Backbone:
């Protein structure tokens, strides 16, 4: 391998004047396999003769030397080292015959003369192969020059080989602006610029830059700017996508990312917590929030979907995201078959998939730090009450034992009801029966749920039916319900029978409903309001309400914060024991009419239920928390702590000798806090819920084939020996020092953010078809150094921004621009239009409107009615704030997938349909219209006018100068002064003549007259507003210099 | 001539970028655009223009230059409109034959639900004698201009994925739409209007903005909605109190200041930015002019069935589509999300047809009169069909992906032609199936683009509209 690197010869065109590119090179240079040969083979041959055995033609494989030497089915060697004339590969490529030439003419991929020559020379040289550079761990080569910043040493060496030199250093003011935009995503204030210019003259450029970089990296706005980069890769959004596109709460994860950047969490740890935070020993709430990364994908809630189909779509998307964000490979290509170009087999794809597959798509509350403390205190208090109980009732163990033995003795024998048909009357839901016989309903959040189960149980004296509301990890907060609290309401339960030969359902009369827990009878709360119940007739209460024949009364068992996600059970008796001939069908229908009707946002359906039958006389539910009854089903020796506690507390609840303690405990629970938000995340499945991974034929969700164990692609680094075969082990493998891609991809992302193009131009593809980087040694050095520096982003950034390479002037000479228009050589500084969020934040900052507040719920930007109207489900919750919240950073704007934010998308922000590793930059009239006319920009122009009036000194000239300083970090030049003043003068004239309505132009609707400076006239402010609007749209305002 | 391919590719890039640097007039800018992708599509044969929207020659002589796609979101019932099934009427209320239901999945209903006879009568129309239902007399009246495909098939049975599949060739979100591929392949011929315009009526679609999104293609290829109310293009209106003269003066100032900066810094991007502001200014005139139907003769409004020209409607969108086609807009897509008749089929589909029949037909007639039909590809259809089986009582149909009907007209298609057929119940295709990918391959073919060669490299793979599928249906082509 290293042999090939040393024989590397740079492409000749870069050092030659244009037009001479095609000139023949005199000395025949040696061939570099990875740089020259592999791209040709990948482009022209691998599609049919690559890693994918399934589609391989003629049994010939060319991505592997041994196989190529052996040849395909024909037995003719494709390659004969040193003998181009005898190599079939060349013969076929050069063949003039249509039926012989490769690739076949219909592919339109003919190998050009230049490429033919490369291949010929390569075979002549012995046809050596080498692994793809990016799949070999990076090595920290000694920088070519000692003493210099290593970044500069590598770049300088490349520049020298092209006989060019660095551009001069950027002007200090420019550099100050560049650093602020890059590190904070905000422009510097004129005072910031002045201070930096002064520091440069006092300390010199290098020391002053070090200083400024250190300060900016310590600023909490740093995390806001850099979080956004990761949010793109993680496809973060505030809605679920697909047709319904309902809102979700996921900002706790977004805030975690901001904090992670601000505290400079090592990237290895950053990835580990996001991929396997929940599996870390003693996982904290923070670490569970981190795994929200894996749940940023879309969730389909359309009516009548099969949830499993879209869970698998979500798995594909999850793998695509993890691949692109961490190892620079979209694994998508191996989803349906073995990758055509890169060494990832179909099996290996599902090996990676298996790490993530046996998981619940969970949702958990996110408590504030104070609430977490309170919960911790409560837990301790409750444990203390338990201990006091035991002290006060010394024979508690015997009593509990007796009590539970009695319960077991009285417990009727229950037979689970097996579904032969399971559906919803409306067809909106397709529930499934699980291994433990519970019935799980996911998918569409149906406002009026109507799940029915049909089976043919033995009806030989069946006396009653039990329905259990069970928890399940795929439900909100574990369920059992699907409401925003995981709660539920059961409006009506209907039982019917149909004996063989009949075609009509006959209702079974029900009576005597009992439940382990029920809320007192009362009206349904406002938050579940629905149009179909304008008179608000619906009530909730005990289990008898589900057999009273009225859909607007329901059994509900919400035990309140801290205990509401618990199991419950109810039993209803059949008025007559049911005796029917064998083959009689039994149908149980669950009606759930207690949801709110805002398109499923206020659903209260029961998500997981189990139905059982009994022949016991007079069946009832004991007044004991069902969690305790479930614990009793587990042999005493096998119970876990949770089950022991459930039993103990259930016993205490009815134990007269412990009444005082029970009352105390109940009082403590009342103090349990309600969380302000929640997070979607993954949680490992286990026990009966464990999910086996099967390879899906052609990636089709309903065509599972053989089982696949979690494993990683053989072409990448080896599996760490003692790592567990789970997500935690996967994270260890991913962040292993031998991992060839992880650090390279991270470093490249940072480089791309600063320079607009990465050292590898395709951050989403480091595979064999990516073009080899111009500065590979630099990339590798930075990647290894990144690992050496504890994977510190701040250290990496500090290294780059203090380099001469970064600090160069960005204009470059015309000759340089002509020679290297895309700046691949890095002989000048980066200059490009800033990202969408920075466009917005700059305008707000310049205007003095920006409201600084780190984190919190996303903010609804004002959006025209004709945008809101284009939603399939209108976002009734879209209430833009009228206060300072309106001017939060772009990072905090609510991202609704099916309604891309008009302002941000005009400036190329991605809409989170899929992971985005690289934004494009366009210059469109829509962006121009946005900058000129979008309400927040207009308000910014008006505010900037006021600011210029107040802070800009007394003259037009000084105010224009301030505008330039605010917008571009430099003074206005005389020519610019003249042009700007001309607009000012014309506007003043027209305003004075009454041709323009001053107040309308100058004042935002929210501004109060009292806020106006005493000496300012509306006409004067209007004139300045027009000037300010131009200033906010200057190319330089929108551009990082 | 011993250069490696990647170097030669980059040399070509360098030349292109340099040329652009000299050109100054860069059109809509393309900073950050992956040039290698543009080059890779046809590496040697064609060179990428500096302006990503510049007109590009197709792969071969095209039959059509532009597209008007009337997307009937929600999925219209082929059984009430296009596919006459007397046998279905006869078997109304009976269960479908068991063999039809093997491996079959609808969305809501149990497949083994009773058959539902067509709700409306059919008759033969035109010289070709094509059958249409009584609900669409106007479309029927142009039977001899239409190419009807009664054998459409798709993979998805839920709206959002099926719409995304129809429009992007994939059920996974994030792929470029047909319009974006077209614009990417052919460029835009309109100087002062976007090359891909979207018009929506009824309500938002299940697939949302991704139905006309650019996916991983550069943003300039995405569809631009022209809105029926408020600003036709977002933020088109100047801020309150700013008139055209003030706007002009502001833009003159902005351009001058930007030009001064460019003289100083020499960044070609600045020229592109100046251009984009000028185009915005032009759009402020051209978009309202486009939307203003006051100069359209009453007879035209009448023909389209436009009752109030100021009111957003499907009918108005059809007339706007013609006006956009006249102005050289490459791709116009109408979305009318209204066809999801799980229940209340009889009344609701009649209402839909009252809204859409006349304008759809008027558009074809109008294009024909103006000589535009020959090189305009007109397409009408939804994301799937409806079940021959009933849903909910006796007046609804569920989602059905085994068969449905679309019709097309113009641009190189056969006229008065019916392609494919379904079985006697309208359940399965029995002759000449046309999958979504085949349809898209054919449409691209008519535009002069070979669907296997119109590719864009993204994450290491050459993506295309038809993924790895699609065959041009030669039988549709005149």
Residues:
């Amino acid at each position: 391998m290293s042999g090939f690197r040393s024989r590397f010869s740079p492409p000749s065109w870069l050092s030659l004047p244009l037009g001479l590119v095609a000139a023949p090179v005199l000395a025949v240079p040696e061939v570099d396999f990875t740089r020259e040969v592999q791209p040709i083979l990948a482009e022209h041959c691998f599609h049919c003769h690559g890693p994918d055995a399934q589609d391989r033609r003629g049994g010939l494989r060319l991505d592997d030397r041994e196989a190529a030497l052996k040849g395909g089915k024909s037995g003719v060697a494709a390659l004969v080292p040193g003998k181009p004339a005898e190599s079939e590969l060349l013969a076929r490529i050069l063949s003039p015959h249509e039926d012989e030439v490769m690739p076949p003419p219909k592919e339109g991929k003919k190998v050009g003369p230049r490429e033919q020559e490369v291949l010929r020379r390569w075979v002549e040289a012995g046809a050596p192969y080498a692994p793809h550079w990016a799949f070999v761990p990076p090595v920290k080569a000694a920088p070519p020059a000692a003493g210099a910043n290593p970044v500069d040493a590598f770049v300088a060496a490349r520049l020298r080989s092209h006989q060019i030199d660095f551009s001069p250093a950027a002007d200090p003011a420019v550099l100050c602006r560049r650093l602020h935009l890059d590190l904070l995503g905000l422009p510097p204030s004129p005072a910031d610029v002045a201070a930096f210019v002064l520091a440069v003259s006092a300390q010199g450029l290098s020391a002053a830059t070090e200083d400024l970089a250190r300060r900016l990296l310590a600023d909490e706005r740093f995390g806001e700017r850099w979080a956004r980069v990761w949010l793109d890769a993680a496809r973060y959004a505030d809605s679920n996508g697909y047709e319904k596109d309902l809102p979700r709460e996921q900002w706790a994860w977004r805030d975690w990312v901001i904090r992670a950047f601000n505290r400079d969490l090592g990237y290895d740890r950053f990835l580990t917590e996001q991929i396997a935070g929940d599996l870390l020993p003693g996982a904290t709430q923070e670490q569970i929030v981190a795994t929200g990364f894996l749940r940023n994908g879309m969730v389909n809630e359309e009516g009548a979907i099969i949830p499993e189909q879209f869970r698998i779509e979500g798995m594909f998307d999850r793998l695509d995201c993890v691949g692109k964000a961490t190892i620079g490979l979209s694994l998508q290509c191996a989803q349906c078959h073995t990758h055509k170009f890169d060494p990832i087999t179909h099996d290996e794809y599902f090996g990676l998939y298996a790490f993530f597959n046996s998981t619940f798509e969970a949702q958990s509350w996110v408590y504030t730090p104070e609430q977490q403390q309170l919960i911790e205190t409560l837990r301790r208090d409750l444990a203390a009450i338990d201990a006091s109980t035991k002290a006060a009732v010394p024979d508690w163990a015997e009593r509990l034992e007796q009590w539970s033995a009695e319960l077991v003795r009285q417990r009727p024998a229950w037979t689970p009801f097996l579904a032969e048909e399971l559906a919803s009357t409306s067809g909106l839901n397709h529930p499934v029966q699980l291994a433990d016989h519970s019935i799980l309903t996911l998918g569409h959040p149906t406002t009026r749920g109507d799940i029915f189960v049909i089976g043919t149980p033995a009806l030989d004296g069946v006396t009653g039916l039990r329905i259990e509301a069970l928890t399940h990890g795929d439900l909100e907060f574990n369920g059992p319900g699907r409401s925003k609290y995981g709660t539920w309401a059961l409006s009506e339960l209907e039982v019917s029978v149909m004996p063989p030969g009949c075609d009509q359902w006959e209702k079974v009369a029900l009576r005597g409903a009992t439940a382990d827990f029920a809320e007192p009878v009362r009206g349904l709360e406002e938050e579940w309001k629905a149009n179909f119940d304008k008179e608000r007739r619906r009530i909730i209460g005990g289990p008898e309400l589900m057999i009273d024949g009225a859909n607007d009364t329901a059994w509900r068992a919400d035990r309140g914060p801290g205990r509401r996600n618990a199991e419950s059970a109810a039993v209803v008796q059949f008025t007559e024991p049911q005796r029917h001939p064998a083959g009689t069908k039994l149908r149980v229908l669950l009606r759930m009419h207690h949801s709110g009707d805002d398109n499923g946002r206020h659903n209260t359906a029961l998500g997981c239920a189990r139905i059982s039958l009994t022949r016991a006389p007079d069946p009832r539910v004991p007044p004991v928390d069902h969690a305790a009854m479930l614990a009793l089903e587990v042999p005493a020796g096998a119970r876990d702590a949770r089950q022991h506690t459930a039993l103990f507390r259930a016993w205490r609840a009815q134990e007269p000798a412990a009444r005082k303690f029970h009352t105390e405990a109940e009082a403590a629970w009342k103090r349990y806090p309600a969380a302000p938000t929640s997070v979607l995340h993954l949680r490992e499945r286990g026990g009966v819920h464990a999910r086996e991974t099967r390879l899906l034929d052609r990636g089709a969700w309903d065509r599972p084939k053989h089982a696949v164990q979690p494993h990683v692609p053989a072409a990448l680094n080896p599996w760490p020996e003692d790592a567990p075969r789970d997500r935690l082990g996967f994270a260890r493998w991913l962040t292993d020092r031998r991992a060839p891609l992880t650090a390279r991809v991270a470093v490249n992302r940072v480089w791309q953010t600063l320079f607009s193009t990465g050292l590898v131009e395709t951050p989403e593809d480091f595979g064999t078809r990516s073009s080899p980087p111009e500065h590979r040694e630099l990339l590798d050095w930075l990647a290894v150094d990144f690992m050496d520096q504890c994977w510190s982003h701040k250290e990496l950034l500090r290294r780059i921004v203090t380099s001469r390479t970064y600090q160069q002037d960005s204009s470059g000479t015309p000759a340089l621009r002509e020679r290297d228009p895309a700046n691949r050589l890095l002989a000048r500084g980066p200059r490009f239009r800033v990202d969408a969020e920075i466009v917005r934040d700059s305008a707000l900052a310049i205007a003095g409107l920006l409201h600084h507040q780190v984190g919190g719920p996303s903010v609804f930007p004002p959006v025209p009615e004709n945008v809101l109207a284009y939603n399939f489900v209108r976002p009734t919750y879209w209430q833009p704030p009228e206060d300072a919240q309106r001017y939060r950073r772009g990072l905090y704007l609510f991202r609704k997938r099916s309604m891309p934010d008009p302002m941000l998308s005009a400036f190329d922000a991605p809409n989170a349909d899929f992971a985005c590793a690289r934004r494009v930059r366009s210059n469109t009239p829509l962006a121009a219209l946005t900058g000129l006319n979008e309400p927040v920009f207009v308000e910014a122009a008006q505010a900037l006018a006021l600011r210029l009036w107040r802070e800009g000194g007394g003259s037009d000239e000084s105010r224009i100068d301030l505008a330039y300083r605010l917008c571009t970090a430099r003074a206005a030049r005389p020519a610019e002064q003249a042009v700007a003043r001309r607009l000012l003068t014309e506007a003043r004239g027209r305003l004075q003549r009454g041709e323009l309505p001053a107040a309308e132009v100058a004042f935002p609707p929210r501004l109060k007259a009292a806020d106006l400076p005493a000496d300012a006239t509306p006409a004067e402010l209007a004139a300045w507003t027009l000037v300010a609007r131009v200033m906010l749209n200057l190319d330089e305002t929108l551009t990082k210099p | 001539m011993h250069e490696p391919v990647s170097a030669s590719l980059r040399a070509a890039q360098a030349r292109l970028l340099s040329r652009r640097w000299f050109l100054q007039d860069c059109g809509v800018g393309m900073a950050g655009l992956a040039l290698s992708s543009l080059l890779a599509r046809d590496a040697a044969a064609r060179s990428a223009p500096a302006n990503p929207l510049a007109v590009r020659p197709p792969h071969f002589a095209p039959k059509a230059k532009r597209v008007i796609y009337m997307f009937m979101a929600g999925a219209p019932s082929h059984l009430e409109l296009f596919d006459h099934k007397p046998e279905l009427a006869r078997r109304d209320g009976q269960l479908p034959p068991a063999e039809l239901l093997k491996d079959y999945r609808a969305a809501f209903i149990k497949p083994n639900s009773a058959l539902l006879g067509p709700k409306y009568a059919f008759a033969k129309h035109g010289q070709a004698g094509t059958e249409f239902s009584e609900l669409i007399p106007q479309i029927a009246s142009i039977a001899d201009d239409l190419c009807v495909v009664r054998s459409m098939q798709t993979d998805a049975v839920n709206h959002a994925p099926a719409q995304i599949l129809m429009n992007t060739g994939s059920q996974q979100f994030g792929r470029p739409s047909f319009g974006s591929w077209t614009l990417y392949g052919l460029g835009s011929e309109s100087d002062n209007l976007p090359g891909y315009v979207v018009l929506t009526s009824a309500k938002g679609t299940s697939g949302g903005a991704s139905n006309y999104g650019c996916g991983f293609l550069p943003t300039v290829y995405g569809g631009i909605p022209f809105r029926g109310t408020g600003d036709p293009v977002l933020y088109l209106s100047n801020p309150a109190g700013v008139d055209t003269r003030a706007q002009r003066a502001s833009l003159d100032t902005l351009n001058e200041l930007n030009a001064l900066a460019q003289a100083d810094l020499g960044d070609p991007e600045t020229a592109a930015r100046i251009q984009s502001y000028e185009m915005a200014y032009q759009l402020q005139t051209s978009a309202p002019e486009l939307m203003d139907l006051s100069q359209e003769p009453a007879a035209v409004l009448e023909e389209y069935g436009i009752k109030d020209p100021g009111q957003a409607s499907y009918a108005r969108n059809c007339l706007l589509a013609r006006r956009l086609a006249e102005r050289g807009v490459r791709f116009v897509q109408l979305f009318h999300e209204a066809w999801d008749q799980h229940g209340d089929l009889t009344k609701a589909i009649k209402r839909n047809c009252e809204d859409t029949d006349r304008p759809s037909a008027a558009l074809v007639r109008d294009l024909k009169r103006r000589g535009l039909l020959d090189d305009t590809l007109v397409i009408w259809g939804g994301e799937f069909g409806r079940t021959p089986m009933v849903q909910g009582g006796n007046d609804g149909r569920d989602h059905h992906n085994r068969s449905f009907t679309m019709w097309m007209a113009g641009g190189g298609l056969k006229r008065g032609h019916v392609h494919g057929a379904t079985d006697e119940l309208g359940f399965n295709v029995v002759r000449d199936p046309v999958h979504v990918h085949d349809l898209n391959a054919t449409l691209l073919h008519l535009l002069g683009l070979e669907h296997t060669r119109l590719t864009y490299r993204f994450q290491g793979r050459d993506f295309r509209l038809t993924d790895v599928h699609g065959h041009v249906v030669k039988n549709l082509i005149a």
